[in-house]
């Protein structure tokens, strides 16, 4: 007959394997990140963005280098932005904006084909991807950053209407060193609010977006002027933002 252990005898401790603890930790970490990111995206569906990941990154770069830094940024609703401006960035950056769900695989395939022919790899990021990256993340080309960009792109496409994505993009995109958003850019370069922008001025602002640190709206080069004219032609062909929305309900 087996005797029961006495009080003085210790009962062996049952330890869980380390990998189970690790999996549990990873599960809760992932769950917390997913929940946090969803809440964050839902907040910015309604709330203006007082800053962005890119603005914070630029500020930190200047602090580390002990350089003076002044950021110009003023949030404006889409109703106070000239209609030519969203059309200009769509014409310049993402003509399939209302047709895709965050990723333009057709343009990505064309970019990869061009690289295979020996040409420089051109950007194929959509307005949705650029919004996700600039608002929530940092610049760079790591797999981690690209993976997070894809995740936040999916979230904003699911949780925001297209109009909100476009409004956010126009309010946080970098138009020059320390100049963020169309309102700050319009006042800096043309001395007027974004609501008063002409088609030519909107196209000029859109022309510098591929590289706002090398391309300048204040002193446009021949290349920038050429891009401006191309964007104006594309704008005429596209018609209006409302027409694009109706064509891609």
UniProtKB/TrEMBL annotation:
PANTHER family found in the cross-reference section: BIOSYNTHETIC PEPTIDOGLYCAN TRANSGLYCOSYLASE (PTHR30400:SF0), MONOFUNCTIONAL BIOSYNTHETIC PEPTIDOGLYCAN TRANSGLYCOSYLASE (PTHR30400)
Residue runs in coiled coils: none
Lineage: Bacteria, Pseudomonadati, Pseudomonadota, Gammaproteobacteria, Pseudomonadales
Protein name: Biosynthetic peptidoglycan transglycosylase
Transmembrane segment boundaries: 25-47
Protein role: Peptidoglycan polymerase that catalyzes glycan chain elongation from lipid-linked precursors.
Organism in which the protein naturally occurs: Permianibacter aggregans
Gene it is expressed from: mtgA
Annotated EC: 2.4.99.28
InterPro entries documented for this protein: Glyco_trans_51, Lysozyme-like_dom_sf, PBP_transglycosylase, Pep_trsgly
